[in-house]
Amino acid sequence: MTNEGLSFDPEQTRAVLIATTKTSDPALEKLNQTKRDLNAFKDVLINPKIVGIPEENLLPLVDQPLTEIGVELDNFAQAATDTLLIYYAGHGLISAENSSELLLATPETTLQQKDLNSLPFKRVSGIMKRSKAKRKILILDCCYSGKAIKSLMGSSPKVAGDAFVLCSSHANDPSLAPKDKTYTTFTSALLGVLGSGLSHVDEPVLTLKQLFRALHDKLKDPEPQSQAFNNGGDIALALNVKKAQQVPAPRQWEGRERTAKSISEAERLGLEQIERRKKRKARREALGRILKGIAFYLLCLVIAAWPTLLILIPQSTVPRFVLKPIAYLTFGVYGSMILLILAAYIFERPKVKPLADWVFGLDTNATEQEVRGKVRPVFLAFLIGFLAMIVVAIFLDPYSFAA
Prior knowledge:
alpha/beta; Rossmann fold; three-stranded antiparallel sheet; 14% strand; globular; disordered C terminus
């Protein structure tokens, strides 16, 4: 089994795995599961049949002091040139000074002085942003972990490169660690998907977006959360065990006959061939979306322009008092679309997608959470733009009742 289908180079990847089982406050329950979470996740990452990161590129930190966590995390993050992965399992707390700030518990943490003796997520965020790694993956299994998404999205500067954040719960929800279970609820599901693969996914690899959807289907209370930055959702983190074992050896390769010398060679050739087909399919789909977007906006332009053309035609038999409000209406609709296109660029939406996908929610790959996040701002922007363009049209009064 090879890991050539993954998005990153394991040799240039660094992973920091942090687990806190105990704190200095007896009011905070001891979490023995988090150490088992870390060890099991580490086994998955070093397994060449799943991920295949060299063990020396992983840094496990179990019940380490606050200062050591910060220093080691920063050192490892700066050493990553391809991909940086950070995993935390433990108590998540809400800052007393800023209710939107997430705190990660350490062995020194107490509820009375949690802002002083816990690891603020903003420090983790800063380390991620300073890292020169091309790809960054953050996995948080703790209470209120969804606050990390809001923190990353609201802070400046933005995360550079492709990044993906995977959280065990909403910003205001606790995460689960049942005493009678070996692992915490979220990490148990994560290990299950990575270790068993997904039979409904045709590709031999699992992207972070596919991984999140599988976890979202498995876990409902609390629901896991995710956020992709740039193309972070397309990062292939692991081999899809269900499919990678079924990859056949291709009989033809680049126009010439080729026979696999071994099972591993057959798997490699099969993975490469599937990856090539996947890229061709993605290019065709992208071209199709772009053409649909162009056709959609051309249609809008025609709809917006026809009342104007009728008004300008002297022989038109349609009364102008009928055409005038229609012209205003279509002018407002099309003008608001233009404003939304400008907004798409202002908010730095991915340029590889046609703007229609974002503006009108036509992205069929979007998760339910992503779609819900689009509806309200798009509706408000459309409404504001529409009203603004109507006012402009009436003020300029380009269409006159005069002959």
